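hey so i finaly got around to running the thing on Polyhydroxyalkanoate depolymerase from Bradyrhizobium arachidis. pasting the sequence first so u can double check i didnt mess up the copy paste, my clipboard has been acting weird all day
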Amino acid sequence: MPIGEFGGAPPLAAEGSPVLTTPMYWMYEMAQASLNPARAVTDATKLLFQNPLNPWARTEVGKSVAAACELFERTTRRYGKPEWGLDDTEVNGIRVPVEVRSVWEKPFCKLLYFDRKFARPLRSPQPRVLIVAPMSGHYATLLRGTVEAFLPAHEVYITDWADARMVPLSEGFDLDDYIDYVIEMLHVLGGNTHVMAVCQPSVPVVAAVSIMEARRDPFVPTSMTLMGGPIDTRRNPTAVNKLAQERGIDWFRNTVITKVPFPHPGMMRDVYPGFLQLNGFISMNLDRHMDAHKRLFANLVKGDGDLVDKHRDFYDEYLAVMDLSAEYYLQTVDTVFVKHSLPKGEMTHRGTRVDPSKVTRVALMTVEGENDDISGLGQTEATHTLCSSIPDHRRVHYVQKGVGHYGVFNGSRFKSEIVPRIHDFMVSAANPTSLQALAAE
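ok and heres what it spat out for the 3d tokens, dont ask me to read them lol
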């Protein structure tokens, strides 16, 4: 069930969103707490009408009551961070266990490593990939399918961004910090690494690589893959892009920023709260979400377990959102969507101009979806114009037919058509002859 806004750029408030004040978050917390007794009664009622000893459990009325109870619980619950659930993978036809562990950590991010436990070492090393996940409302587990697709033939690392309400106020985080984090992670991995930015991180990843190249950093990545990223939102602007341009940064600062309430560790931090982001996500496709929950009710009554589980899996991920640091969020909106600083050559990092033309050693691949309604066609491809010093034979652009934003990094076409191309690109990145042949395809 691909949803266009699932995992795109930092979410923008929906039309008609209320002006927030500090008490808004506190009122939300009070509303959540006030629903706890109702949820407890609903859970008990559901168990009663699903009990095989209850004769009503086998009737249409009993099944409808149990289904209604589940819908109430699911639509009023606060969803926590999902689990990765990637316990094993298949490498060269053999199933091997996978251990997910942190290899680097800072207040706003952990670098997770999907350690495949081989019985014997591989004959030849596989490409090491740093996947930079979106920090745009959803957790990094949004890219579970992306990681799963790369695990059989790659050594995979991913950024696991923190919920801002769980980070003490003493720790700051803005777009400059984001770029620093990416550079530090590439240093930790020690070179010979391929970096892949999914959607929103495309701009900070390009900035990080540009800064490293300007410094002649020895740990610059071997290749850079950008997928559905808003590099230049002036090209083929989408509704999301137009809204940011029309509103301006002051509207976002005054409308969607509030403070984290007690008892969260980040109490009094300015954030763009997850519950407001979720309101924006759902408003973009309200009819579709309502229909999905109507179908859930019908399938619960019918007892169609497969369709029910599919709905639960999707919405357990979709409804799990986190707060974003206000400094990071506002800087990103202003830099990427309002001022278009990177394509104009005006973006700076800690007072120094970001110059993508300095990139010379890094191979570049951009991937776009034909039907992407979040990052329009051409917005990611614009990177090739900015990184003008990369030789033509070390750059590749690919448009996947028939997919929207979500399909750029997940789904059947991603696995069967996009992943093999990215793999070939990464393997060939250090071989100019092979990469030249790949670029010509």
